[in-house]
Amino acid sequence: MRYLPKSDSERRQMLDAIGAGSLDELVAHLPATARLNRPLAIAPGKSEYEIVDYFRGAGERNAAGYASFLGAGVYSHYRPVLVDVVASRGEFLTSYTPYQAEIAQGTLTTIFEFQTMICQLTGMDVANASMYDGSTAVPEAAMMAIRITGRSRILISRAVHPEYRAVLECHARNQQMPVEEFGYDAATGASDLVDLEKKLNAETAAVIIQNPNFFGNLEQVKAAAELAHKHGAMLAVVFTEAVSLGLLEPPREADIVCGELQSFAISPSYGGPYAGIIAAKEKYLRQMPGRLVGQTKDSRGNRAFCLTLSTREQHIRREKATSNICTNQALVALMATVFMTVYGKEGLRELARQNLSKAHYLAGKLNPRFTAPFFHEFVVNTGKRSPAEINSKLLERKIIGGLDLERFYPELKGHMLLCATEMAKRKDMDAVAEVLNA
């Protein structure tokens, strides 16, 4: 009954309890200009089937029934039905946060499994219980590197997601943390390691690259790590497309890996909520933000789980805290955990292969702008027509086109970022190629 309005008799009982004769008498002390003397300007109530019809219609006006080739950090992947079956269980859906280990073993167990799978996925030794999203994980990785190295300067590639860079710059302004960007190669579309080497110095705490990068191209992670370590800096590798880790070599050369798990059965949902991660080498464990769940034994010797590390202000002295992140995305991280469990190693590898092959099928009908190897995103030149015009033509065919790159990269005016996941159908890819080649 908690979400239902009060009945007339219940209102009468409440007014009697406080000694008011009516609702008007209850608000009589308010000036007339502050009172609304007419009904609210909202439509009358609807029945359940009318509400369902309304939302179905609204869904059809959105992306339902449309093929999507828009990526740029948020991807359209299939969501296994089992994900919602598990995540909707009351034990998970209504739990807040696992402070009391003795009554939160289920939540703690799923977080522990989540951390384990993230370590396997990234090639790192330890992973936290999740971050708010991939964008907030980037500045956390930068601040982590500053604490470890005692240096203050961050170098980040322009091929890292522009919105991730914007979040980093926002944090940097208040942390007195100098952030400088290094470029990408105009021919390959990968980070320019020559420019990186020129800008590395004794004050650089970390180098941040994304793999696959914002253009979908693969980076030279090992070479970037060698350059960073040569100058005493750490390497942080970012990912926005977790599915790529089913096929690509894990970034083991990195010191810190941070990223976004939206691709793992988390709906695009107009931008969130999502789940980010930070994973690192074991020696950096105590500088990780957020919380980590560990395995232990109870008083009877049975396997048990608890919050082993929580380096945040609520738990330790403020000057000792590594971050002001207040919690973790436990429910969303659970969705990603179920996804990884459903697919397994072989399934994730096959899923990544499908993404790779479909994107290369589409790219084979077009003319990609960059020469570096790519995963399932690539840049194309739209020629004399603008990306907006191309996308308008595609919408007529119920196809959502790519991202106009001029918004973030003025030098790429007339270029579009396209993405093809396992959801892309051949007829839709052929239609995209037909419109672009017209």
Concise summary:
The chain has 438 residues and is α/β, with parallel strands linked by helices. It has helices at 8-18, 23-26, 48-61, 81-87, 90-93, 105-122, 134-149, 162-175, 193-199, 221-230, 330-364, 387-395, 426-437; strands at 67-68, 126-127, 153-157, 179-182, 204-210, 234-239, 256-260, 276-280, 291-297, 303-310, 377-381, 399-400, 403-404, 415-419.
Which secondary-structure class do the elements indicate? alpha/beta
| Major sheet size, sense and barrel closure | 7 strands, mixed
From the N-terminal CA to the C-terminal CA, the straight-line distance is: 59 Å
Report mean pLDDT, rounded to a whole number: 92
Order of strands, widest sheet? 2-8-7-6-5-3-4
Number of domains: 2
Order of helices and strands: HHHEHHHEHEHEHEHEEEEEHEHEEEH
Structure description:
The strands form 4 sheets. The protein has a 7-stranded mixed β-sheet, sandwiched between helices. Strands 11-14-13 form a 3-stranded antiparallel β-sheet, with no helix packed on it. The radius of gyration is 25 Å and the shape is globular. It has 2 domains: 66-80 and 344-437, Aspartate Aminotransferase, domain 1, CATH 3.90.1150.10; 81-339, Type I PLP-dependent aspartate aminotransferase-like (Major domain) (Aspartate Aminotransferase, domain 2, 3-Layer(aba) Sandwich), CATH 3.40.640.10. It is built from 13 helices and 14 strands. The longest helix has 35 residues, at 330-364. It is 37% helix and 15% strand. The model has no long low-confidence stretch (mean pLDDT 92). By secondary structure, the protein is of the alpha/beta class. α10 (221-230) links the parallel β5 and β6.
